[in-house]
Amino acid sequence: MTLPMTEPALTPLDTRRRRLLYRATHRGSYENDLLIGGYVRRHIGAMTESEMDALEQVMDLSDADLADWLTGRRPIPQEIDSPTMQAIRAFALAPWSR
Fold first, then answer.
1. Domain range enclosing 84
2. For residue range 33-52, what is the model confidence (pLDDT) as tens digits?
3. For position 68, which CATH number holds?
4. Which of 76, 84, 92, 98 is in the most buried spot, having the most CB atoms within 10 Å?
5. What pLDDT does 3 receive?
6. By the 8 A CB rule, do 29 and 67 touch?
7. How far apart are CA 4 and CA 97, in angstroms?
8. Residue 3 forms part of a structural domain
9. Cα(40)–Cα(51) distance, rounded to whole angstroms?
10. Taken in order 21, 80, 49, 56, is the CA torsion positive or negative?
11. Environment class of residue 7 by beta-carbon count within 10 Å: exposed (0-12), middle (13-18) or buried (19+)?
């Protein structure tokens, strides 16, 4: 007798990671889909809960501002600057990262 194959149940952390990845790659701005989505796609598997919290704070910012800050067109304001913003910006500015 053969048992049907089932996929393992997702943990709450897996579900959160999937939602963050979807949100990062479907922002409404193609530029940010590539910049933020590319970063998240590469790093989401190793992110801790606190890193995901910080990522969500970044993703709550406006697309136009994020595009300017992440591409270096405008400096990141001090009150917004964070290790997560710096990591995404470094990813966005490194041609070999994509």
1. 12-97
2. 999 999 999 999 999 999 99
3. 1.10.150.250
4. 92
5. 62
6. yes
7. 40
8. no
9. 11
10. negative
11. exposed
